[in-house]
Write a structure and sequence with these properties.
Organism: Brassica campestris
Mean pLDDT: 78
Helix content: 55-70%
Domain GRF-type: 24-67
Order of helices and strands: HEEEH
Structural class: mainly alpha
Transmembrane segments: 137-157
InterPro entries: Znf_GRF
Distance between the termini: 143 Å
Keywords: Membrane, Metal-binding, Transmembrane, Transmembrane helix, Zinc, Zinc-finger
Radius of gyration: 48 Å
Strand order of the largest sheet: 1-2-3
Number of strands: 3
Amino acid sequence: MSCTTGSSVNREERQKSIGVPQRCWCGRKVDLLVSKTNENPYRRFYRCQGALQRQTESHLFKWVEVAMAEELEEQKVEIGKAFAELERMGGDCIALGRCLKSQFGSLEARVCQLENDAKLREAEECSNKRKAVFGAYRHLGVAVFVAGGLALVYKAFCG
């Protein structure tokens, strides 16, 4: 048995499948069989289930080692694509990290500014409270002084 069975372009297009085949062009499942010929003893191959009934048609036939080599080559291509995507994502992560670091620095500076503004307001409020308390003490002292004087005047006249 050979890997190509026919010279027609149509037949080659029908038969073409990359990697381990699942179905033939006709839609039937593919069997995994072992060759019993003198040319290829015990060599494994894939063949369409309908190939024996329709020997005049070119149904799927592929040696296992050919299918495996194609499958590995296809996986190599996919792994290359995955690595390229990972490299792109790594670059995106680095750029995102730089952007976040910049934004974090800006936010950190803004937080420091807000903390300083809050401390200044707190100091101003505290200063204003001291002034109010001192002013209240002054008024209280005058009231006590006046009240004390009135008490003395009252004692002098009434007492």
